Amino acid sequence: MTFQQPEVDTSPPVSDEIRKTTCYMCACRCGINVHMKAGKVAYIEGNRDHPVNKGVLCAKGSAGIMQHNAPSRLRAPLKRVGPRGSGEFEEISWDEALDIAQGWLEPLRKDHPEKLAFFTGRDQSQSFTSFWAQNFGTCNYAAHGGFCSVNMATAGIYTMGGAFWEFGQPDWDHTKLFLLFGVAEDHDSNPIKMGIGKIKARGARVIGVNPIRTGYNAVADDWVGITPGTDGLFILSLVHVLMKAGKIDLDYLSRYTNAPVLVNQDKDSADYGLFLRDDHGAPLVINRKTGQLAPFDMHGVRPDLNGSFQMGDVTHVSVFRLMAEQYLSDDYAPEAVAERCGIPAPRIHAIAAEIARVAFDEAFELDREWTDFRGETHKTMRGRPVSMHAMRGVSAHANGFQTCRALHVLQILLGTVEVPGGFRFKPPYPKPATAHPPPHCRVTPGKPLDGPHLGFVQGPEHLALLNDGSPARIDKAFTWENPMSSHGLMHMVISNAHAGDPYKIDTLFLYMANMAWNSSMNTQGVMEMLTDTDENGDYVIPHLIYSDAYSSEMVAYADLILPDTTYLERHDCISLLDRPICEADGAADAIRWPVVEPDRDVRGFQSVLVDLANRMKLPGFTNEDGSAKYHDYADYIVNHQRKPGIGPLAGFRGDGTETGRGDPNPDQLDRYIENGGFFLKHIPEEASYYKPWNMAYQDWAVELGLFDAPQPYLFQLYVEPLRKFQLAAEGHGERQPPDHLRARIQNTMTPLPIWYDTDQQGNDGFTVNALTQRPMAMYHSWGSQNAWLRQLHGHNPLYVPTKLMRDAGLEDGDWARVTSPHGEITVPVMEMAALNENSVWTWNAIGKRKGAWALTEDAPEATKGFLMNHLIHELLPPKGDGLRWANSDPVTGQAAWFDLKVKLEKAAPPKDLTQSQPETPPQASPVGAGPGTLTWKVGK
């Protein structure tokens, strides 16, 4: 008798329909296939046709199901009925909620638009939110970049027209050596994982520079456990060694950078340190063919790197000469910097030698003809197969701007930017800083702002100052305190508004910015500021409107809650006007669309802004006859034109066949949905490299609508606008800084990158570096409410290196007291050998406040989980001069999260053995706590 095997369906149908959209579980914006069964989300997988992830999907992306079904989702508009911070609300209708918002906002617009401070978190729709704020008329708008990585973006754009992350990527197909600086696993995770896998399969090497060895650094061939805040010193030491050995690309420097541009050397001149220019403003070089002056972009010119020119009594020398004089100094020798960097001098030499070997000994050429902006045709494209990537770890310091500049200068000296094997820009980049608008701040009651809020200053004339010299913006962006703050200073808004410095505001309007918890420096202080009252018993910040999809810690502090949808329930636009999803070989944009309808009384935040704009009849949203231009955000995406023929989406314009430029197409969103939620246009092969100077790329970019005209430019090794601010500090020009800032501007705003120490807390025993970084399975504060992702990171110990564990008498599971000049925490510790020996760290945003996110009060995130934020302050310790010195980079104002220094000592376990300290009292939640067991299964 034969044995009968049971019949098992080994491949049951996962879904009865697939809807393709864009992930929102981090900022990669991968393409996803959302499998639907009986009208519900059953399964999420990667879209193999998508240009970003090509089908790869991480744990976060797959866990989007649990984000969509999170018990913490807000259910209806809410009006506060208890004191701020209590979390006591009542549900109201959308009509009432919008009436309240309009009642607060409309009088401000008519009389004092600047009294609205509108700041958004990681919303990925900043071209739209900034357009709304501009038409409202307030000067007080920015997004989260000021406390994230504005140093990286700003340094990159001023230096080479783009930076890492959304601006560019390594040439994964040709790179043979990949260096990462300060990169944690949460940003750009899928593309980097895919890229590292690709290059390691070819035998390429990876070097990770990071005090902490996790994630990418754990799979690196070499890990460099650098002392936090010294990356710039290490990078400039590499520059020193490479220049001394002659391992720099002189031909690349002379053709494509301002290294040959002549600089005024007359110390008594008001133009000291500025470029010599012709009558049309073009920087001048010495033409090697003739020995005469010539504009840098003259057809046929061959710039002389060693140029010098005497004009009257004034000598002008090339930028390259100034670089050699500065960086060949023994101050940058490995032997001089090793102790501060925590890297032995022989190892610095060895890393420099490896970089040089790969860049020059393994150089190669692609057989592709191209023509540069000077009219010269090149038969091949030369490749230097060294690429780099960096992120918040190097930028979130008070010397982060100059450190990021130093890293870009290192790349450029090697000739590894926009060449085969090196770092490549993603459209719409590269764009020089001069292609971006300057910031605008002129407020007129009842009228739009005079231009875009954010931008790139080219000198003191672009600062956002009022006629009396005081800051125009509540965050003091674009002032003498932080002149190049291209993303604003979100971390300073609440503190400045509470202090009335530079003035009082009426309404704080926040979107998806958890400023009462993990997104705030000085967490407890911010909670107190939001609840503080004046002598009349009124709140110091009178009105607070907040929009979020979830019951976060910030919700409890709002007066009015406008509940957002989840990312699977709304329209979003990942636009070339904003933060696109392009790859180096093509321009791309994407949408999200409601693959499911909300089962709650919630609305997409962008559509709510459209509704408010229509109620207030904001210019830009209103036709000449007073009717509304757009009825919701989807309508705006399709029909808005930033300028004729250019809208939020580049694909399927006009009759559906036009790309980049074209009239609005009423079927555009449907065409995107049919195409998988994205649009992609490939760059012609002859335009694929040398983009800033390649006329084939420049013409293609004009055709696509990225530029109105070709705009080739030079990489700025020497950033002249920085020198203009120094000149002002030296007493030149009409706009002068206050006396107490003159020395700081002179010392930090140098046109060539420098390094300076950021230990501003003094010794006082605070000698241990304290850091946070995000794990690959989490992103901002969203992930640690997610039922699936919580299983990966339910709580966060403080990781302590072996040496400090022994010095403090600690063992795994012990508790330690960690103190800073600002605060104290008591937390569980765990030993970690792969860590800089004088640094401690933990995962960021795991710790939660009891009552938030629908977590139970005994959830590990709310007990053992903790924040390092309790130790940080948005202001530096007082200097005794009565001034409020921000804990920020002095150039850009980026929050200096990673300059924190602490003391560490063993502590007795808390009375409750599971409760980290400080223990913030629970807050009431408008959604309550979720079920004890949360499962999700659709169908059989």
TrEMBL record:
Protein family according to the UniProt entry: Belongs to the prokaryotic molybdopterin-containing oxidoreductase family.
Cellular compartment(s): Cell envelope
Gene3D superfamilies per UniProt: 2.40.40.20, 3.30.200.210, 3.40.50.740, Dimethylsulfoxide Reductase, domain 2
Principal location: other
Residues covered by region (Disordered): 648-667, 908-940
Keyword Transit peptide: no
Taxonomic lineage of the native organism: Bacteria, Pseudomonadati, Pseudomonadota, Alphaproteobacteria, Rhodobacterales
Keywords of the record: 4Fe-4S, Iron, Iron-sulfur, Metal-binding, Oxidoreductase
Organism: Tritonibacter scottomollicae (Epibacterium scottomollicae)
Entries under PROSITE patterns matching the protein: 4FE4S_MOW_BIS_MGD
Name recorded for this polypeptide: Molybdopterin oxidoreductase family protein
Domain (4Fe-4S Mo/W bis-MGD-type): residue spans on this chain: 16-72
Cofactors required: [4Fe-4S] cluster
